[in-house]
Structure formats: structure tokens, C-alpha cells
Amino acid sequence: MGNNDEKKIRPQDKWDKKAGVAAKTYKVNAETAEEFKEACKAAGISMGTQLSKMMREFIDDVNQRE
């Protein structure tokens, strides 16, 4: 099948790799997800940025307990 089966590398893919960014998929409560989306919009912050901040705070909290 040749080159048609190979995934094309987009400029965004290169940037994501360099920046250490990865797309993740999680299942969450739909209502909570919508409320989170609206809260991020109201705060003027991206959902990814806020999720990363909350993840880091949780990781640090758990690591402090150990």
C-alpha cells in the first residue's frame, strides 16, 4: 500500500512534540464538562491550561502526602 498508509506529520504535530503537548481523551460527566467549559470561558482561560493546572496541583498534593 506504500506511502498512503503513513501518517502525515503536520506542522502542529511537530510543535506539540517540541512543546511536550499530548492530546488525551477522558470520559467525564457531560453536565460537569459543559459547566467547566463555560467557567473557563468566563474566566478567559483555555480548558487545557486549567486542566493542566488542576492536574499539577493534585499531583503535588498527593506527592506531599507520601
Can you walk through the features of this model?
This protein is an all-alpha fold and about 70 residues long. About 65% of the residues lie in helices and about 0% in strands. The protein contains 3 helices and no strands. The protein has helices at about 10-20, 30-45, 45-65. The protein is extended, with a radius of gyration of 17 Å.
Task: Give structural attributes.
about 70 residues; mainly alpha; 3 helices; extended
In short:
This protein is mainly α. It has three helices and no strands.
Portion of residues in beta strands equals under 5%
Average predicted local confidence, pLDDT: 89
Structural class: mainly alpha
Which of globular, elongated, flat, extended, rod-shaped describes the shape?
extended
The low-confidence parts are: none
Major sheet description: none
Amino- and carboxy-terminal Cα gap: 52 Å
Order of helices and strands: HHH
Q: What is the number of strand segments?
A: 0
Architecture blueprint of SSEs:
Blueprint: H1 11-19, H2 30-43, H3 47-65
